[in-house]
Write a structure and sequence with these properties.
By secondary structure, the protein is α+β, with helices and mostly antiparallel strands. It is 34% helix and 15% strand. The radius of gyration is 13 Å and the shape is globular. The protein binds zinc ion. The site of zinc ion (ZN) has 7 residues, from loops. It comes from Coptis chinensis.
């Protein structure tokens, strides 16, 4: 049995819903300096970096500086993108092009 339903992480369950991609990294420690930054390890490619949720997003969704994109298979990354988009919808807005 492999349940992917993660227990509520520190920081509050409400926050977790808006930040689903935290579920795919492991928080190793709080980064020095605070500000909501963490040292994290990707559960898929084992890459380690420090930063906020926006860097986690860039790792999985691409298009960022400072963080390499995840090398997980494209199918998996597509699921992450959907999770991210669903979270935005729950928040009450949709990113339009
Ligand atoms: Zn990765």
């Amino acid at each position: 049995m492999s349940s992917s339903r993660a227990p509520a992480a520190e920081g509050g369950a409400g926050k977790l819903i808006l930040s689903p991609l935290w579920n795919h990294v492991e928080k190793i420690s709080k980064a020095p300096g605070g500000g909501g930054n963490y040292k994290v390890r990707c559960k898929f490619c084992s890459k380690i970096w420090s930063g906020s949720y926006s860097r986690v997003k860039k790792h999985f969704l691409g298009g960022g500086f400072g963080v390499k994109e995840c090398t997980a298979d494209p199918q998996t990354l597509k699921i992450f993108k959907t999770e991210h988009e669903n979270a935005l919808k729950r928040k009450g807005y949709v990113e339009c092009s």
